[in-house]
Each structure stands twice: as C-alpha cells, then as structure tokens.
Amino acid sequence: MNLHTIETGLFKLDGGAMFGVVPKSIWQKSNPADANNMCTWAMRCLLIEDGNRLILVDTGIGNKQDEKFLSHYYLHGDDTIEKSLAAKGFSKDDITDVFLTHLHFDHCGGAIVREGDQLVPAFKQATYWSNEKHWNWAVHPNDREKASFLKDNILPIEESGQLKFISEKEGIEFRPGFNVRFAFGHTDAMMLPELTYKNHTIIYAADLLPSVGHIPLPYVMAYDMFPLQTLKEKKIFLEEAAAKNYILYLEHDAVNECCTVQQTEKGIRLKETFKLAEL
C-alpha cells in the first residue's frame, strides 16, 4: 500500500461556526480570522494505491456550483484535484474507488462534474462508496443540514449506477489494511478510514477532528448535528489515539497534514505535526 496527499484547494468558513462555543479570543490564536471572521481551511483528500485498486478518499468541493454559491466560501489557492493527481502520475480515469466519508458539499462536491447540461461522475471508472444510513440521511435532510447536502452532488452518483454501500458495522474491513470506523456526532454515520501503513495506524479524521486547533475536547463545531455525541466520540477517539500513538490525517487543517496527540495534565493535547510523505 502507498499513500499520497491530494490537495484540492483552500476555502473559508466562519471561525465561530468552526469552533462553536469557544470564544474567538481563544481560537483565533491558532486560527486567525480575516476581517469577515472567516478562517482558511484545506480540503485535503487521500489517495491509496493498493494492488490494482486506486482509492480516493473524499473529493473536495469541486467547481460545478454557480458563482453565487462558490462566492460564499472564497475558494483560493493553486491546488486542484486534477493537478494533485497528475503530480502523482495519475488521472481521474485511473481511480477505481471513491470512498466518501460523508456527503457534505466540501467532501463530495468533486465527485460529480457538469458536462454540458448533464451531471455525471467525475471518476468514470470508479465505484463510489457510502453507507445506506448516511445516504438516506443525506437524501432526506433535516432543515438545519440540508444546505450542506446538495442534490447535484449526491443524486447523480446513484443515477450513474456506480454507487455501492458499505455495511454500517464498526471496524468493518473495506480492504486488507483498510478498516472503517463510524462517527455520529457531526452527521449521521460518517465513515473514517483506518489504515495500516508502514507499521503505523493512520486515521483519516474527516470532520471528527478538522484541525489541530480542534484537539481540546470542548472545541466542537457548530456545524455538528449532535455536539454532545461529538464530544463523547472525540474523547474516546483521542484517548485511544494517544494511548496507541495513532497518526491522525487532517482533512481541513490548512497548515498541518498529520499529527499525533498525547495525554497531559490538561487533557489530550498535540504531540507533533508532520507531512504524510515524511513517514
């Protein structure tokens, strides 16, 4: 198995929304905001070479939405999914599997592209993976979350015939060395890849832990549907990560790709940060 970082660009989200009840005077020390209270975030995907399979975890926001929608998120930076794949010697047609942690627009928007007046899979040779519980949650969204579940990103996946579901069994093996963990606080049945790589356990943290700035337990996003569930999940997850020295791969941290955590007298805190390629 080989792992590759795939950067798809940067965007901005409101700092207060990203840090919930934590005061700005505290969170801005690690994530400084601009004049509009917006902080910069990555949309970092992961490419997994595994035998004859080339698996892409998440796809970023894409570019098919209209200018008004995209203007809310201040997309910037030079990275795109196409450029990042090409830098590793691949194209979108080489992808065999697209593993979607969940169906919020900044995680699955790049899964579908607009060709003329048609919405079609961006990865024409790939099987798209979700799970039935989360899929149903996304296609029948609650009023609070429906702005994050865009039909243009989701329904064409099913219509293409390329969609398959993973069982919602905790720890299920997707591939040898690739197990799936589930989290239910951010959104229902979000999937976190757990990978065995070079004698390390790497967890793709998705939105359970967006950045190193979210390591302290109370730092829970206002975007989370069930914040107390997130708090419980984070505590269990981070204590396990500290005890077993897991590597946490960070999808939204604009600066840090990977980190480890440690137990301190103040609770779980950051241990070190590094790039995936340094392993």
Summarize the structure.
The protein is an alpha/beta fold. The chain has eight helices and 15 strands. The strands form three sheets. It has a seven-stranded mixed sheet. A six-stranded mixed sheet has the order 1-2-3-4-7-8.
Walk me through the topology.
Blueprint: E1 2-14, H1 15-19, H2 24-27, E2 38-50, E3 53-57, H3 67-71, H4 81-87, E4 97-99, H5 105-108, E5 112-115, E6 118-121, E7 127-130, H6 132-139, H7 151-159, E8 163-165, E9 172-175, E10 178-183, E11 190-197, E12 200-204, H8 227-244, E13 247-249, E14 258-264, E15 267-274
Parallel strand pairs: 3-4, 4-7, 7-8, 12-13
Antiparallel strand pairs: 1-2, 2-3, 5-6, 9-10, 10-11, 11-12, 13-14, 14-15
Organism: Pedobacter cryoconitis
Protein name: Glyoxylase-like metal-dependent hydrolase (Beta-lactamase superfamily II)
Domain Metallo-beta-lactamase: 42-252
Do you know the CATH architecture?
4-Layer Sandwich
Quickly count the domains: 1
Q: Largest sheet, described in full? A: 7 strands, mixed
End-to-end Cα distance, whole Å, is: 13 Å
How would you sum up the global shape? globular
CATH class descriptor name: Alpha Beta
CATH topology: Metallo-beta-lactamase, Chain A
Folded structure, characterized:
With 279 residues, the chain is an alpha/beta fold. It has a single domain, classed as Metallo-beta-lactamase, Chain A. The protein is 22% helix and 32% strand. A hairpin with a 2-residue loop joins β9 and β10. The mean pLDDT is 96. Keywords: Hydrolase, Metal-binding, Zinc. Belongs to the metallo-beta-lactamase superfamily.
